[in-house]
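QA checklist item 7 of 12: single-chain prediction sanity check.
[x] sequence parsed
[x] length recorded as 201
[x] structure emitted
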Amino acid sequence: MAALTIGLTGGIASGKSHVASAFIALGVPLLEADDVAREVVAPPSPALAEIAETFGAAMLNADGTLNRRALREVVFADPLALKKLEAITHPAIRKRVADWRAAQTAPYCIYSAAILIEAGMTALVDRVLLVDAPEDVQLRRLTARDAASVELAKQMIAAQASRERRLNAAHDVIDNRDERVAVEAQVARLHRMYRRLAESI
């Protein structure tokens, strides 16, 4: 098991994927939360069966896989439905992450999750690393990258934890407000620090 687990997070369009790639290039094992979320509802998983039982057979496609669009429409329109879904999937996600951590042999590993803080998953990691960018930078990137309207981009940002909440939860921060500030140099510095911390545990 890795001595240290880092939780990598960041708001939408903050550059989290870029940072994840930089750590992977240094040979750091990294588990992506989106991949875990897909795995735990793949047929014939118990979580998938429970989703169909709780929300109805319409949540399944003809081939037995999860109808993500139908489920999204249900849970994002109803906060109570979202809580029910999280009660089904989060225990399975936690177990998958714990099993992955136990299998790691590197000094440290990374669990990358956009909603690490919102989902209450910080207990799965030893330190939280935030990729930070101000809201105006997120807006600019979203409207340029996804051709999203300013209004939609604002809604997407508002749906996540506030920048202040993320900063308060973070042990370490990568400043990605400006493409001229080299992310790779910040990652290299943190890589050295995390290896030292892992050795001291």
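[x] summary fact logged: The chain has two domains: 1-29+106-201, 34-103.
[ ] second reviewer sign-off
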